Structure formats: C-alpha cells, structure tokens
C-alpha cells in the first residue's frame, strides 16, 4: 500500500468510528483527538479495525505513533506496504 492508500484506509476507519465528524478537514500534523471527538474507546476501536482489516497488531507501546494522521501513515505504511485491503 502506498502512503496515500494507508491515509485513505485510516480516513475510512475514522469515518465509521466518528460518523458525525468532518474528517476531510483533518490536519495531518495535528493530534487526531484534538481535531475530532475521539475518546479512549474510539481509539481502541481504531486499533481493532486495523487488526481486523489488515491483520496487524499495534502493541500498546506503539499507540503514541497513532496520535496524528502523518504519524499513523508513517508507522503503518511499512507494515502495510505489500498488503491489500481485506474485503
């Protein structure tokens, strides 16, 4: 997956978890929790969706890498580089 595909996959997950939020206005370098209304359960839902869709585990020690869109993409893209979106 390219970085843009990873970003789109994250956007898809966010739109399902926070359907009332305007995710199209997300600043890639701002903290996601500051830009959209995500609580700790929503954050765990994101981690679960990543596991479900891409069969990857994000260890708790790496949660900090999911703080911003750009850090998510930079963290996930090497893990997802050769994977395709699960259907």
Helix content: 40-55%
Using DSSP, what is the number of strands? Answer: 0
The level 1 CATH classification is Mainly Alpha
Which structural class is indicated by helix and strand composition? mainly alpha
- Report the major sheet: none
Please compute the radius of gyration using only Cα atoms. Answer: 12 Å
What gross morphology would you assign? globular
Give the integer mean of the pLDDT values. 90
GO molecular function: acyl binding; acyl carrier activity
Keywords: Phosphopantetheine, Phosphoprotein
Pfam families: PP-binding (PF00550)
Domain Carrier: 1-80
Offer a few descriptive terms.
single chain; 87 residues; mainly alpha; Non-ribosomal Peptide Synthetase Peptidyl Carrier Protein, Chain A; 4 helices; acyl carrier activity; acyl binding; phosphoprotein
What's this, in brief?
Keywords: Phosphopantetheine, Phosphoprotein. By secondary structure, the protein is mostly helical. Helix content is 53%, strand content 0%.
Please describe what this structure looks like.
The protein is mostly helical and 87 residues long. It has a single domain, classed as ACP-like (Non-ribosomal Peptide Synthetase Peptidyl Carrier Protein, Chain A, Orthogonal Bundle), CATH 1.10.1200. 53% of the residues lie in helices and 0% in strands. It is built from four helices and no strands. α1 crosses α3 and α1 crosses α4. The mean pLDDT is 90.
